[in-house]
Structure formats: C-alpha cells, structure tokens
Design brief:
There is one protein chain. The chain is of the alpha+beta class and 546 residues long. The protein folds into 3 domains: 40-114 and 405-533, no CATH class; 120-178 and 333-393; 181-330, no CATH class. 17% of the residues lie in helices and 31% in strands. The chain contains 9 helices and 31 strands. It has helices at residues 71-78, 83-92, 131-135, 162-174, 378-381, 402-409, 434-441, 488-500, 509-534; strands spanning 10-11, 20-21, 26-27, 36-37, 42-43, 50-55, 66-68, 107-112, 120-122, 138-145, 148-155, 179-200, 203-211, 219-222, 236-241, 248-252, 260-275, 278-282, 289-291, 301-306, 314-317, 323-330, 334-341, 348-355, 372-375, 391-393, 424-427, 449-450, 467-468, 473-474, 483-484. Strands 12, 13, 14, 15, 16, 17, 18, 19, 20, 21 and 22 form an 11-stranded antiparallel sheet that branches. α1 (71-78) runs antiparallel to α2 (83-92) and α7 (434-441) runs antiparallel to α9 (509-534). It is globular and about 85 Å long.
Length: 546
C-alpha cells in the first residue's frame, strides 16, 4: 500500500512538502521528521543519495560521469528494457512511500571503466530528425585522431535510415584517410607461435610457449575458437601478467568462443613480420593501416620491433601474410556506429566514432577530437561537434590502476559541467576489478561505500541506518567519512594534527585531511597497485565495448 511519508535516508520537517536528504553524519528511517546523529563506528556521507555505477560498454564515456535524476531520464538514454533502467527503478524506488528519491535530489551516475579502452566520440541525440532532415545534412567536416587529420565532404542525401547514414558517414570519412608513408622493396613474413593455453570468454591463459614469441596484436586459433565475420574477436589486445611474450594472462578483443576451454591445449597465434625497404615519403607509425598487393583489409601496424622508422626496421602487423613489394601506410579507419535506443518518453539516436578495433588502440595511447565544421554546419547537425554537446571520451589506451581510475572520478564533471559527488558505488559486472574496488573503499575512497555484492541490481538510494565503518577504519559520532586506523587515540591524533594545521570548523576540512593523510595514502596506493597487479585481473571484453 502506498503511503505519503519520506523514504529512508530523508526526513520531512513540519510544513515541508518534499523530503529532505539527510545531512552528512545523520541518518533517518522511513517517516522521520528529523534526522538522527550517527553513532560511533558508523558514518553517513553528505552525498548518501548519490551512487556511481561503473560499466564497460562504449555508450558511456570514461572521463565523464553521466548524471540522471529520475527513472525516466535513465530510460530515455539507455532504453526502457536496459540493465541501467532496472538499476534506476531500484535506486529511485518510485511510489513506494508516495514519493521518489528524485524528490530529495538523488542522483544516479554512470561511467565507463577507463582501463584499456579505445577513445570514442559520443554524439548528441538526433531522434527528433526526420529522414528528410537527415538526408539534407551536407557539408565539409574534419576530425583529428592521434594528430592525423581526416576531412570529408559529407552528403547523406542517399541515406535510407539512421544506420545507413552511419555507414555512409564512415565511408566518406575514411575515403580521404591521411597518407602517412609510402615505401618500396618491403617484405612481410608470416609468423606462427605454438603455445599451450586455455580460455574463458575473452580471457586467454598461456601456460607455456613451445616456439615463437607471443605478441599483443596477433590472432589466436585453437579448438573452440570461433571467428566473427565482423571483427577480429580473436586478436590479443593486452597482456596482464607473466614475462613479455611468454606464459601469462592475456585479453582478446572479443569472446574467443561461445563457451570455454578449461584444460590447457595446443593453440597458435599468428601475425606478420614487416621489414621496410626504402621509405620514399613520410614515416611509418604504430596504428597505421597497411595497403598493397595481397594485403587483407584492416591490416594494422601494431608495434615497432627493431630499428627506427627507416630501411631495415621491423614491425609487427596483425595479419599473417607473405609478400614483397611496395606498401602505403595511412591513418587507421574510423568506425561510425549508430546507436538507436527506445526510451520511455523519447528515443535516443546518436552516432559514435572510434578508431577501428583491429589497430591496437586498446593498448596504445591515442587521442580523438571533436568533429569540426570546415564549410557549412554538418558537424553540428550530426551532433558530433563540441558546440552541439557531443562527449569526447578521450584519450584512449590508458592503463591506470583501479585506485587511480576511481580517484579520477572524484574530480570529474557530469555531462552538464557539474562536479561529481557520490556516497556509494558498484560495478555492473560480477567479479570485475573487485579486489581493487574493495581496497579503494578503505584508502582513496574513504566515505564512499562499495556495494560489492550488487551488479545487475542495486538497493534504494537511501538507507534506514548509517554505514558501518569498513575494516581498518573508525569513526566518532556524526562522522561523514571514516578515518584510517582502528583506535580512538588515532582519531584524537588526527584531530589534534588538523587543529595544529589551522583546520577547524571554519576551515577547509578536506584540504586538512588530504594534507595529513597524503603520506599514508601514497603508501596505500602502492599496496592497491600491487594487489591489482598480482591479484584479480579478470577483464571481460566484447567487440562493442572497446
């Protein structure tokens, strides 16, 4: 039965018509008219009604936290039947108490884990455009990737729908990909690595290498490995552990198969070894596309193995071919993906530009800029310019620790330019970076509660009781965040130290705490990085999440 009372984590003062969020250091059960002071050993964040969801798909940027204040807003962006909409229904908990946490200002954030992802340019919603308006988009545009300029004359007059428009846009952008180098007298020799390994989804474990050297960028084959007709799902994109090129753990671009191979078996990796002849113009660069006689589409320069960029230098390419002749090197192809989302009150159709996944930019750092107008306003009309409101999730190929990534979220802005504040966080995928996320809660994330057991589901924004201090921390009455250490003496020492630094109720508490705890946090960060490296490394990947 629906009642009219403030939900947990809020209170309704006499005469008020909407619930008020509890201040930091206080809690409220349902129906409260005033908040209650937290007892010692517990805390309540001043941002307890805000939560961060950490996902892995490319529809969310990794350098911006998308903020939503209602179930409908989430449904309109991610879709009515999306996992994100389910989380929003549970978080905002509408109508259970005759009101919603939206009424108290609750915010649900979504961000993408910025751990080895390609950069993406996410356009604005174009669902209001008619087909005739889409077909009328025409003009000259430019976009810069990794310092390479792509320019195109955009003409969507022949587009039959939104997806077709994305394909036309992709073709037109890549038609004038920048030429980086031209060479003569080159040779490519195919290489085969024989190894023993097993896999689960996109995770490959190499137990031993019998011949050759494992390389990031090569293609894996073996019993149960399936090949996608659309992308190199079997391409190795990162080595997580073990000696370089040897036994260890690796990630591939997509799932290697529909199941797994749990017992180590004989497998192979193939790639090409390119030796340059004479460079007649420009210079060869990692991430460039190779074209020439007998060269398959989407052949990428993955790494420089020896030499500089001149004659005799050797390079790793992703495709195993044998040839000799003249080659041309261009900027990597750009992919344009159409996203079409069915929302509750409006749909969400937008373009998403990224470098092609075969070219190594999950591992290698890169930057992607906004689309700009050269003549006309096509970049604005496509929703891909900065002025139109596009989000540039760049740079890519970054590999911070979990601690560094989470610390970054505390300094990010939402899509409206507002500072990001949250009192709890959770990952959207089970067993994904759990070790690092758990450690951060008691280190750099003091005051942010990790909901470690929630992934595809969550709990309501507000709770009836304060948060119990996590292990290794303590709080006095009315705390907004726990302190490192477990004794009251250490608490008193911390307060004394803050007072000695001139920090009191009228000063900057956060700055004082940061100054006081900086040496401790530096040590703890090293611990977190060590445990992330040697502990749980599992990283699920899929073609569309890169």
């Amino acid at each position: 039965m629906t009642t009219t009372s403030p939900p947990p984590g809020t209170y309704l003062p006499s005469g008020a018509t909407a619930p008020v969020a509890d201040p930091g250091g206080y809690y409220s059960a349902a129906g409260a008219t005033a908040p209650t002071l937290d007892p010692a050993g517990t805390y309540s964040s001043p941002y307890a009604l805000n939560r961060l969801i950490i996902g892995w798909e490319e529809d969310v940027p990794d350098n911006v936290c998308l903020a939503f204040n209602s179930v409908t807003a989430v449904q309109n962006y991610f879709g009515v039947v999306s996992t994100e909409a389910t989380l929003a229904n549970q978080f905002f908990d509408p109508n259970v108490y005759g009101t919603s946490y939206s009424d108290a200002g609750a915010t649900l954030y979504f961000t993408r884990e910025g751990l080895g992802q390609r950069p993406h340019l996410l356009g604005v919603n174009l669902s209001a455009l008619t087909l005739a308006q889409l077909q009328a988009i025409n003009g000259s545009v430019a976009i810069t990737f990794n310092g390479w300029n792509y320019s195109a004359n955009i003409d969507l007059s022949n587009a039959t729908n939104f997806s077709d428009a994305a394909q036309i846009l992709q073709t037109q952008l890549n038609a004038q990909a920048p030429v980086l180098a031209q060479t003569t007298g080159d040779t490519i020799q195919s290489q085969t690595v024989n190894f023993t390994g097993d896999f689960k989804n996109a995770q490959l474990t190499v137990t031993s290498v019998q011949s050759g050297t494992m390389e990031v960028g090569g293609l894996v084959d073996g019993n149960g490995v399936q090949h996608s007709p659309y992308f190199n799902n079997n391409q190795i994109i990162y080595q997580h552990s073990g000696p370089t090129g040897g036994a260890g753990t690796y990630s591939t671009f997509g799932h290697l198969g529909s199941g797994s191979v749990s017992t180590p078996e004989a497998m192979t990796e193939t790639y090409g070894l390119l030796t340059l002849g004479t460079v007649t113009s420009g210079s060869v660069a990692i991430g460039s596309e190779v074209t020439g006689p007998g060269i398959p589409n989407d052949t990428a320069v993955i790494a420089n193995l020896s030499g500089t960029t001149g004659a005799g230098s050797q390079w790793l390419i992703n495709n195993a071919v044998d040839m000799s002749g003249h080659l041309t090197f261009t900027g990597p192809p750009l992919d344009v993906a159409p996203h079409q989302i069915t929302g509750a009150t409006q749909n969400n159709d937008y373009f998403d530009i990224s470098p092609n996944g075969a070219f190594g930019f999950d591992k290698n750092p890169s930057t992607l800029g906004y689309m700009t107008n050269v003549s006309g306003t096509a970049a604005d009309q496509l929703g891909l310019s900065q002025a139109s409101g596009a989000i540039d999730s760049s740079p890519g190929g970054q590999h911070p620790t979990i601690a560094q990534f989470m610390n970054n979220t505390l300094h990010e802005k939402d899509q409206f330019g507002n500072p990001v504040h949250y009192g709890s966080y959770q990952g959207e995928t089970p067993n994904r970076f759990t070790n690092g996320l758990t450690l951060w809660e008691t280190r750099g994330g003091l005051g942010e509660q990790f909901l470690s057991t929630y992934h595809k589901t969550t709990i309501p924004a507000g709770q009836s009781t304060p948060v119990t201090d996590p292990p290794g921390t303590h709080s006095g009455p009315g705390a907004t965040a726990p302190l490192l250490g477990t004794s009251a003496a250490s608490s008193g020492g911390a307060i004394t130290a803050l007072t000695n630094r001139g920090i009191n109720s009228g000063g900057n508490i956060e700055a004082g705490l940061n100054s006081l705890l900086a040496p401790v946090l530096a040590t703890e960060t090293q611990l977190i990085e060590s445990q992330e490296t040697h502990g749980q490394w599992v990283v699920e990947t899929s073609w569309h999440n890169r």
